[in-house]
Amino acid sequence: ASGDESIQVALVGCGGRGSGAAVNAMATLPQGPIKLVAMADVFEDRLKGSYENVSKVIKDQMACPPERRFLGFDAYKKAMDCLKAGDIVILTTPPAFRWVHFQYAISKKLNVFMEKPVAVDGPGVRRVVAAAEEAVRKNLKVGVGLQRHHQPVYLETIKRLNDGAVGDILAMRAYW
């Protein structure tokens, strides 16, 4: 948290997952000092719809006036520029842009939550890895949305599969 003990959050990517991630972030401290202070998207309808929907759910934690709702391909910079070092940015844009946004967040000394996948090609992955290494050097926290990787029932299932409980697996499909 910043010196005034409040945690400010910016949302970059206002689609369904971004809106959900913002609500999830606010739920971590529902009466705590956390506020959504900036939003960014390329599409006006997504930004407007996200603001309206998220405001209904986290109205007491919404602190994002029109002047901190940004549109365009440079909107991510404007939203992150509203934050102080140590605040949090949520990155939920399409993954082709993730490394660009992630590098900028780390340069601004922001903690990051980003959705998967973090990149779509080898060069993008290398840039994400380099930015992650820089985040470690700056003692920043980075989280990636990975479904169920820590749920005990899934970990137990994988352990049993690896231990041969069903024999050799030749092919597998999984749906959610």
Provide a short characterization of the protein structure.
The protein has 176 residues and is α/β, with parallel strands linked by helices. The protein has six helices and six strands, in the order βαβαβαβαβαβα. The longest helix is centred in the C-terminal third of the chain and has 16 residues.
Topology:
Layout (H helix, E strand, L loop, with lengths): L6 E6 L3 H12 L6 E8 L2 H14 L11 E3 L3 H7 L6 E4 L6 H10 L3 E5 L6 H16 L4 E4 L6 H11 L14
Parallel strand pairs: 1-2, 1-4, 2-3, 4-5, 5-6
Helix pairs in contact: 1-2, 4-5
Search tags:
176 residues; alpha/beta; 40% helix; globular; 6 helices; six-stranded parallel β-sheet
Describe this structure in words.
By secondary structure, this protein is α/β, with parallel strands linked by helices. 40% of the residues lie in helices and 17% in strands. A six-stranded parallel sheet has the order 3-2-1-4-5-6, with helices on both faces. Helix 1 runs parallel beside helix 2 (44-57) and helix 4 (98-107) runs parallel beside helix 5. The radius of gyration is 18 Å and the shape is globular. The mean pLDDT is 92.
Mean pLDDT: 92
The percentage of residues in β strands lies in 15-25%
The secondary structure category is: alpha/beta
The H-and-E topology, N to C, reads as EHEHEHEHEHEH
Strands side by side in the biggest sheet? 3-2-1-4-5-6
Please state the CA-atom Rg, rounded to the nearest Å. 18 Å
Q: Strand count, sense and closure of the main sheet?
A: 6 strands, parallel
Distance between the termini: 36 Å
Low-confidence stretches: none
As a percent range, the share of helical residues equals 25-40%
Number of helices, counting only DSSP H or I runs of 4 residues or more:
6
Shape: globular
How many E-type strands?
Answer: 6
